[in-house]
Amino acid sequence: QLRLVESGGGLVQPGGSLRLSCAASGFSLDHYAIGWFRQAPGKEREGISCISGSSGSTNFVDSVKGRFNISRDNAKNTVYLQMNSLKPEDTAVYYCRAQWRRDYWGQGTQVTVSS
Fold first, then answer.
1. At CB < 8 A and 24+ separation, what contacts does 97-100 make?
2. Which of 10, 35, 76, 91 could be disulfide-bonded to 50 (CB atoms 3.0-4.6 Å)?
3. Closest CA to 23 of 72, 83, 78, 93
4. Comparing C-alpha atoms, which of 3, 12, 13 is closest to residue 96?
5. HEC string of 54-89?
6. Class of residue 98 by CB neighbours under 10 A (exposed 0-12, middle 13-18, buried 19+)
7. What pairing do the DSSP bridges indicate for beta strands 46-51 and 103-105?
8. Alpha-carbon distance values, 26 to 2, 5, 45, 54, 63 (Å)
9. What is the DSSP secondary structure assignment for residue 90, as one 8-state letter?
């Protein structure tokens, strides 16, 4: 079965860190551009970071720049989103997306930042 699976979400206090994983099953992520998105309650889904499939170049939206980092481990067929200095406004369901010859979405993982 071809799919993406996110993991690593949870409850964390403000200022804490989490690392999300996006693992591919049934296909290789090698050439895929990977994007991380999030959707907070009552808000639209927004793209927050991406990493290219070729050069490995990365991009971040201003709201997470300097706090989040995206990386890929092709040997593990996984892309990571390291989230540091988390804020309550980072609370959302986080999704990953893989785009190249096909377009895949994961099912999402909940991140809650609260004291």
1. 97/4, 97/34, 97/35, 97/36, 97/37, 98/4, 98/22, 98/24, 98/29, 98/32, 98/33, 98/34, 99/32, 99/33, 99/34, 99/35, 100/31, 100/32, 100/33, 100/53
2. 35
3. 78
4. 3
5. CCCCEEECCCCCCCEEEEEECCCCEEEEEECCCCHH
6. buried
7. unpaired
8. 5, 11, 26, 20, 33
9. G
**Residue 19 phi, psi (nearest 5):** -120, 120
Place of tokens 């989230």: 83
Question: How do the pLDDT tens digits run along the chain, 115 residues long?
Answer: 899 999 999 999 999 999 999 999 999 999 999 999 999 999 999 999 999 997 889 999 999 999 999 999 989 999 999 999 999 999 999 999 999 999 999 999 999 999 9
Residue 87: CB partners within 8 Å, gap ≥ 6? Answer: 14, 113
**What does residue 10 show for φ and ψ, rounded to 5 degrees?**
160, -165
Q: Which amino acid would we find at residue 94? A: Y
